[in-house]
Batch of 2 targets.
Target 1
Amino acid sequence: MKSFIQLMAAPAVFVQIPLTSFVTGLITYFSEGSIWPALKYAGGCFVLMQLGYFFGVLYLVYHECRNGREDRSALGTSTTPIAHARLGRAHPRTPAARSF
């Protein structure tokens, strides 16, 4: 899972996706000898990788939300720390403030 998260890092993806699309277009241009198939393949490659990145980020968000729900259910509470703060009480994981 850690390698997947490292692959999904935004700065690396902003370089990898256009570079891979450019190389795909370049290889297609040299093999086909025409710019139009090269543009089609490069554009298709770019769109497919962007979709993969989008769904990868959705998967990571879903995974984090599911882990948070499991953590809250193990503690016996169904509310989030923010909801506890709005209600004016301490969350079960945070120690109550001591008054001296």
Note: The chain is about 75% helix and 0% strand.
Target 2
Amino acid sequence: MTNPDLMALLQAHGGLSAGLTRFRNGLVSDGWIEKGSLFATPVTLDRVAAQQARAVAQAFPDATLLVGAPACGAVPASAVARHLGCRVAYVLLQPEAAWHRMNIPKPPERVVYIDDLICTGQDACLALHFLRQEGHTVLGVSAWISRAALSGEQLVTLAPPPFRLLDASELGPDSTFEFQDIRE
């Protein structure tokens, strides 16, 4: 599903940075997304949350709980849950997966994991494994944009990635990174 509104909002708020980029995880891209540009303006974030809520309602109409991780999905999960009238909980991923003490849901819940941007999918997979281990039914994942496919999971995004991942081994010795140590 492509949502031109999300891309227009990112563009308008300076959230799309084109240029050779090295992420903290070692991946290389021809640009990166500064999601903080949308978080900084609650009215704008709420517009994106409303779009994500519509996508969640359509793809996962039986969801009873939305879950986000504090580093990437807690704020979107809360905002989307407000639009859907759902409960929300937060899963901590470090040092090991655990519930945040604010809400420890009792199983079984029908859960959608909410994120803003998924780069490698490692954190999302860790969260999904934890949710299943806790006795919940994972319906799927909703993210604004995902660079990873999340094999075996239903993934609903608002837009495709605007920048390509590149093979670092194919970069020339004179390649200069415009952006380094980036975490999307």
Note: The CA atoms of residues 56 and 142 lie 7 Å apart.
